[in-house]
Amino acid sequence: MNNSAAAEGIDAFKSAFRRHAAGVAVVTSLAPDGHPVGFTATSLASLAAVPPLATFNMAQVSSSWPAITLGNRVAIHMLGPRSRHLAELMAAAHDLRFIGDHWHADDGGLPLLNGATAIAIGHIVDVHPVHNNAIVVVEIDNGILGEEDEALLYHERAYMRPHPLEG
Q1: DSSP for residue 4
Q2: Is 25:74 a contact under the CB 8 Å cutoff?
Q3: What is the pLDDT of residues 26-61, one digit of tens each?
Q4: Strands 111-113 and 103-105, bridge-based pairing
């Protein structure tokens, strides 16, 4: 194996994960005081089909952290290139994330983003704190399919779309 550069510790970690493409999602919920919260996540993964479980990771210092409590409802929005603006918006300043007409509340007040390719709605069944972060497990109760789109990927600090490989 030809290694062109060496790194150690956190630099090695960051460099390696910049080269690992990840799907892009947005998680939304309601804070304890009832205001909408959300953040962009590249750590979304399916955990099981029966029961339907998904996981995501987040920092406990996140402005959305107070909403991550057992039983609280969340909406996980899968995004495509046409909804990239939602990923960028939900990664920007938290006080600007829900200003505008890019979202609406469902019957229970849960914030849903317009233009997602799919939305999985569920409730938090487990939270595993790890240092200053957490692994969050969500049981999916229902979902909404939006318009089909290519996958939105995050790679080398940029949003991208996949392209098929030749041969």
Answers
A1: S
A2: no
A3: 999 999 999 999 999 999 999 999 999 999 999 999
A4: antiparallel
**Edge-to-edge strand order for the sheet containing 45-48?**
36-41, 25-30, 73-78, 118-130, 133-145, 53-59, 45-48
Q: In the numeric block, which tokens belong to residue 142?
A: 């229902």
CA-based torsion, 20, 26, 27, 32: positive or negative: positive
Q: With a threshold of 0.90, does the pTM exceed it? A: yes
- Here the tokens at position 55 are 């996981």
Q: Tell me the one-letter amino acid at 116.
A: A
Note every long-range contact of 159-164, with CB atoms under 8 Å and residues 24 or more positions apart, other chains counting: 159/24, 159/81, 159/84, 159/87, 159/88, 160/21, 161/80, 161/81
At 17-26, the pLDDT tens digits run 888 889 999 9
- How many C-alpha atoms does 152 have within 13 Å on its Cβ side? 28
Report the distance separating Cα 86 and Cα 117, nearest Å: 12
